[in-house]
Amino acid sequence: MRKIVILTGAGISAESGLGTFRDEGGLWARHRIEDVATPEGFARDPALVQGFYNARRMQAAKAAPNAAHHALARLEAEFAGAVVIVTQNVDGLHEAAGSRAVIHMHGTLAGALCADCGHRWDAPPEMSPAHACPACAMPAARPDVVWFGEMPYFMEEIWTHLEEADLFVSIGTSGNVYPAAAFAQHAMRAGADTLELNLEPSVNARDFAQARHGKASEIVPQWVQEILARA
Ligand code: NAD
Ligand code: ZN
Questions:
Q1: pTM over 0.90
Q2: What CATH number has the domain bearing residue 25?
Q3: Which of 6, 114, 115, 158 could cross-link 119 (Cys pair, CB 3.0–4.6 Å)?
Q4: What is the distance in A from the centroid of ligand 2 to the CA of 131?
Q5: What is the mean pLDDT of residues 60-87?
Q6: Are residues 227 and 130 in the same domain?
Q7: How would you classify the pairing of strands 141-145 and 167-171?
């Protein structure tokens, strides 16, 4: 086995205290997705959306990687072949654990993006709609995250990684959000073995040859241990 491609979702960060979509009482539960995670929502009420992402950025800054993030960093450091993480998460917990080959397909809370000219810069802890773009001076700063209805980042690179994968592993993702939900099928058609590691069977569970269910902090380190022992 030469290449492992890993997709991660909100479930891998749940035990670090960052809520998934469905966590009751969490940040997402207090808002409708249409209001805070779409370009239309941002156009209607930029202050609400900035406030939502400021809260997420603050929460993520206080969070620490858990055993699952650490295990993936260990896998990348010790596995003889290539390990690539494609994450839907906008937190920086993979990097905080030491992973280096991380692709943020849905962007990152650490970034700011000018909705007018496309310029990117480091997000301040608190963004506001009045914040001017350092390149074009328009008050059009937005979080550099991908909203529903927008095209995820780095897709060509990601499809290529999936085609080169000997093993594709999906961790902590519900399988509701496309195109990420199609990665398992894509990798399998190109010849990869496929494994799902999730708390429960995902919506697209039947696209995986194998599955293990449980908490990411337990099943991910176990799986990494087995892969490294085998190699
Ligand atoms: P999701 O909320 O739809 O699904 C999370 C999945 O993780 C569920 O299947 C759940 O059963 C599983 N899960 C929950 N706790 C777990 C645990 N301890 N161990 C293992 N699995 C666990 O999340 P998703 O599939 O990533 O949805 C995609 C969208 O959610 C993305 O657009 C992403 O940007 C956004 N999101 C990101 C974050 C983050 O950056 N931390 C947080 C919430 C939502
Ligand atoms: Zn600009």
A1: yes
A2: 3.30.1600.10
A3: 114
A4: 11
A5: 98
A6: no
A7: unpaired
